[in-house]
Design brief:
Layout lengths: L1 H7 L4 E11 L5 H10 L5 H12 L2 H10 L11 E6 L5 E8 L2 H22 L3 E7 L12 H42 L8 H8 L1
Antiparallel strand pairs: 1-3, 1-4, 2-3
Helix pairs in contact: 1-6, 3-5, 4-5
């Protein structure tokens, strides 16, 4: 089953780009100071989460696909997820899909497109591409060996579960028979293994 699954599942690749939020340049010094204040640890979380929500929105994704000259229908084939890097005003955008080059292009563009909308609302900030995504060469989906290990583990667990169920049913059957015999004359019955059964019959 694992071999069949691996053979029939096209490989997918994950590309990652990072973007940094900083106080805007070329604006009033008081606004710059206010931007620095709002990027402190106590308030920057809400700002960064807002940026990730904008970047992952359907409208930004559609605009990004169009900007790259890609069919917007392809957006259904790519998983896009942006997260905030802990303890930093940095957003990480991950794109997973069948085409490694497209995944890298999307990851390196989504944050810029989303950043334009973000800056329209929060004009005291700038969004810059920190690290562009490189084209991944190794699939991010499970390899055949991993699938085989998973399938083997599930098989062992399933076999053990069936053995436990069978043992419990046999024990319950023996107890039931003892109970019924005891109701007549206090007799009891013990389960005879297959080997003992044939030995006694011989």
């Amino acid at each position: 089953a694992a071999v069949w699954l691996d053979a029939n599942t096209p490989p997918e690749y994950t590309a990652t780009a990072t973007y940094v939020v900083s106080p805007g340049s070329g604006i009033d010094p008081d606004d710059v100071a206010r931007g620095v204040d709002t990027l402190d640890s106590s308030r920057s979380r809400a700002i960064m989460v807002t940026l990730t929500e904008i970047t992952d929105s359907a409208s930004v994704q559609a605009e990004t696909f169009a900007q790259l000259g890609l069919d917007t229908a392809l957006s259904e084939d790519y998983l896009i997820e942006s997260v905030v890097v802990p303890e930093a005003n940095v957003m990480e955008t991950n794109v997973t899909g069948a085409d490694a080059t497209i995944a890298a292009e999307l990851a390196s563009t989504l944050g810029l497109v989303g950043g334009v909308r973000f800056v329209d609302q929060y004009q005291i900030y700038d969004i810059e591409l920190l690290d562009a995504a490189s084209v991944p060469t190794e699939p991010s989906t499970p390899a055949l060996v991993q699938l085989l290990v998973i399938a083997g583990t599930l098989g062992v667990m399933g076999g053990a579960a069936l053995a436990l169920i069978r043992a419990a049913m046999q024990e319950r059957s023996g107890r039931t028979m003892n109970h019924r015999l005891g109701a007549y004359d206090g007799s009891s019955v013990a389960r005879i293994d297959e080997h003992d059964r044939f030995t006694r019959a011989g």
